[in-house]
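Last lecture ended with a question: if I hand you only a sequence, what can you say about the shape of the protein? Today we answer it with a concrete record. The protein is Phosphomannomutase/phosphoglucomutase. Below, first the input exactly as provided, then the predicted structure, then a couple of comments.
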Amino acid sequence: MNTQIFRQYDIRGIADRDLDNELVFGLGLAFAHFAKMKLGKSELSVVVGRDARVSSDRIFCALADGLVKGGATVVDIGMVPTPLVYFARVQGSHDACIQITGSHNAGEYNGFKMMVGADTLHGAAIQELRGIIADKSAAEAAQPGEIIADENVISDYLNYVGGNVKMGSKPLKVVVDCGNGIAGVAAPQLVQDVLGAQMIPLFVEPDGNFPNHHPDPTVLENLQDVMAAVREHQADLGIAYDGDGDRIGVVDHKGEVIWGDKLMILLSRDVLKSNPGATIIGEVKCSQTLFDDIQKHGGNAVMSKVGHSLIKAKIKETGAKLAGEMSGHIFFNDRYFGFDDALYATARLLEILSNTDQDLGQLLGDVPETFATPELRLDCPDDVKFDVPGKVAEQFSKEWEVNTLDGVRINFGDGWGLVRASNTGPVLVMRVEAGTPERRDELLGWLENAVKSAIA
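The predicted structure:
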C-alpha cells in the first residue's frame, strides 16, 4: 500500500498503480466500519458518485463491494460532479457519501472525496482510515448491505437550483468550458435551460482522457480557449470548471480572468446585502483587497487555512455565509448548504449579472488596483518543506507583522508575501501582492532570499 495517497484533504493516486481492487475493496470495508463507529449506527446509507475517468467504473465496483460487505447500503448516483454527491447526501438524508474522482489531476489519477454526516474527512480521519485498511481491522458484516440506484439526482439538483435563484431580465451570453470533465453532464443544462442564458459550449462531452486541455482553471494556459471564445462571440462572460466540478474559473466580457479572490469580492458584496454583518471567509493566499472589501461593506472578514475540508470546518465553526479560495472553491452557506459547488456558484453569479445593467468590469471597477504574482511553486522535499515557513517568519518578525496561521504571511504595510508548505506535494507555495509592479518584485526578491536561506 502506497501510504502517500492518503493526503490531507482526500485520497488520491495513480489508479492502475496505487488503487488496485484489493485496496479499494479494503477502503470500502474500512469506510463502512469507520462511519458506523463515528455516527454510532448499526445501519448505514452511503451515496457514491464518480467522475468520467477511465478507471472510475472499475473503482466503483470494488468500492461498492467493500461497502456492501461492510453492511452499508450503497446509493449509486452514477457519473456526476462532486457537488451533486454532497447534494444527494443532504437531500436524501443519507449518512455519508464518497465521490470517486481525480479532481484536476491528469487522466491516469483517481481518488476519493469523503463525508461522514456533515463532516468532510481530512487530516487525522483519513489517516485513521489508512490504519483500519492496513490492520485489516474492519470485519465483514453479518448482514451485508445492497446497492440501489438513484438516477434522478441531476434533475433534482437542477430543479432545486432553478427554484433557489431569481434571474433578472437582462439576457446573458455565456461561454461554458467543461474541459471534458464531469461538469458537462449538468452545467450546460443549468446555464441554458434552467438559468435561461444563451450558451456557447466548449468541451462539454465528458472524456477521462481530457483531449483538449487539462481541466484546471487555476492555470492560465487552460483558460485560453474560453478567453478566446468570449472575445469571438462577444459574450458577457466565460465559465470554466475543473475535472469534478467543484472549482470555478471566470473570464469577464473582455476575455480577462477574474481570479477566485476577486470573484469573492463580487459574491461577498451580494451576500452582505441580504446578510448585514455576516462572516465571510477567505484563505491565506487571497488578496488583501478581499478582506478589506468585506470589512468596508460591513462584513466580518475571517482568514482561513487553505483546503476545502478545512474551510468547511471553519464555516461550521463560525457560521460564515460565504467562503472561497484562490483556487475557485466557492462555498455558499447563504440559501445553500455550505459546501463547495462551482455549478451553484455559476447560478449565483449569473443571478447577480442578470439583475444589473453593469458588466463584470464595472461591478469590480472600484476595487483598488494591486499587482500580485500568480501562485508560485518551488520544489522542496517533504521532510524539509514544513520547517521553511517558520524560519522565514523568524527572519521577518523583528520588523514586520507575521501571521503563521498557515505557513507565514508577512504584512509589509504596502504589500504582503506568503510562504506555505503544500499539503499535496513536495512543494513550497509563494505569493506576493503590492501596490506597484516594482514593489511586488522587490518583496518577491526578499521572500525568495529568505526561503533560500531557510532551506540552506
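Comments.
1. The chain has four domains: 3-152, 172-256, 260-363, 371-455.
2. The first strand starts at residue 11 and ends at 14.
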